[in-house]
Design a protein that fits this description.
The protein has 127 residues and is mostly helical. Helices cover 88% and strands 0% of the residues. The radius of gyration is 33 Å and the shape is elongated.
Length: 127
């Protein structure tokens, strides 16, 4: 408000109504600009903090995967040691089935993605 009050509109011989409209318009514009800048900066701050969170989750996931893979033989040995043999056979059979089904699912997804990519590429080229 101080900036607007310091302007000397009297020198321009403009009617009081126009001066009030200009003052209100400038005030509204500056308030909206201030609000937009505040929202933008808070959004950027949340984005930066979420990048750090995603980085931490990624590092923890990679480390956990590595340690599980490194101790795979030990984990399988402990499973075989502590569970009945019948359970271990069923578990290994089910894991093989799940792996086969998951592989088929991923293969189907890759095929669908490739088909969609080709269709979009053709549409872009001939559009």
């Amino acid at each position: 408000m101080g900036f607007i009050d310091n302007l000397k509109f009297e020198e321009f011989q403009i009617s009081e109504e126009v001066i009030n409209i200009l003052k209100n318009s400038i005030t509204t514009f500056l308030n909206n600009l201030s609000s937009w800048i505040t929202n933008f900066l808070s959004y950027m701050l949340s984005m930066i903090s979420s990048i750090a969170t995603v980085g931490i989750y990624t590092v923890i996931t990679i480390l956990a995967t590595y340690f599980i893979c490194a101790d795979r033989i030990y984990i399988l040995d402990q499973i075989e040691h502590h569970f009945p043999k019948e359970w271990v056979k069923k578990l290994s059979k089910n894991i093989r089935k799940i792996t086969k089904l998951l592989g088929g699912y991923l293969k189907a997804q890759v095929i669908l993605i490739a088909i969609n990519f080709i269709l979009v590429l053709i549409r872009i080229i001939y559009a």
